[in-house]
Amino acid sequence: MLAKNLAHAALLGGNTVTFTTASEMLNTLAAEDSASGLQRRLSRLCRPAVPRADEVGYLSYGNRHADLLCEIVTRRYELTR
Asked: What mean pLDDT, rounded, does the chain reach?
């Protein structure tokens, strides 16, 4: 609930927000066939000012999904530095 309220406040403040579940996000990324398609999708996910992924710790993920999650976190970190 706290994350939803923060995302709502960010929207009211004029920021862009994305909302998805971690499994939906990672499954979509893992299904990409080409490297260029994966890069485009990663860029789109990292573009909003406030990205929000629900249920990150709820499920266990394989190595591919863990690598993709790490890539998203790294890209977001690079954007905020």
From this structure: 90
